Amino acid sequence: GAVVSQHPSWVICKSGTSVKIECRSLDFQATTMFWYRQFPKQSLMLMATSNEGSKATYEQGVEKDKFLINHASLTLSTLTVTSAHPEDSSFYICSARDSGAKAYNEQFFGPGTRLTVL
Amino acid sequence: DAKTTQPPSMDCAEGRAANLPCNHSTISGNEYVYWYRQIHSQGPQYIIHGLKNNETNEMASLIITEDRKSSTLILPHATLRDTAVYYCIVRVAQGGKLIFGQGTELSVKP
What we know:
- The complex is a heterodimer of chains A (118) and B (110).
- Chain A is an all-beta fold and 118 residues long.
- Helices cover 0% and strands 51% of the residues of chain A.
- Chain A has no helices and eleven strands.
- Chain A has strands spanning 4-7, 10-13, 19-25, 32-38, 45-51, 57-58, 67-73, 76-81, 90-97, 107-109, 113-117.
- In chain A, strands 2, 4, 5, 6, 9, 10 and 11 form a seven-stranded mixed β-sheet that branches. A four-stranded antiparallel β-sheet of chain A has the order 1-3-8-7, with no helix packed on it.
- Chain A is globular, with a radius of gyration of 14 Å.
- Chain B has 110 residues and is mainly β.
- Chain B has a five-stranded mixed β-sheet with strand order 1-9-8-3-4, with no helix packed on it.
- At the A-B interface, strand 5, strand 9 and strand 10 of A face strand 3 and strand 4 of B.
């Protein structure tokens, strides 16, 4: 199956700093990628939809100036958590939609990035 | 996208079939039923999907009721590695977002 990678797999940072998380589709092109956040013992919450070459679409309640998304190529989307605070500590997961695959199961997930803000 | 209802947790004995139910009574005619699972601290993994016919692949079987208001995911011979949270999601085939509910935490026990 198609592979999606995330980097880093975990990161610890100080409060007030910014953290960038990369999401890459390794063997397919993805015009659309999605970013999710998951708190302990909770389900995945969709944060935003990232479209290559255009602005991301954010879900209601997600601060676009706080979570900057860039999708500059067909294989890479980045999520930058700006001025991170302890409440931003979470498991961030991306998924990528294979532009060339069958429509039905075309979305593949990365392994996630664990962010801890001290 | 229609909402789904799943039991919060289930247990299953290793080697036995695991039957995970999902209620999606408000499903629309163009919405598919998808199943994903998430093993602890990993990204979700696609399992199977279906529209109205029963489906089977190497991982599982999906049984959808005739009125499409509910479905059951069947893991025919559960192993300890099948311990995970299983999510039932309904969405349109193309362009729809995957919106995750609370899922069912399946514990497979020796």
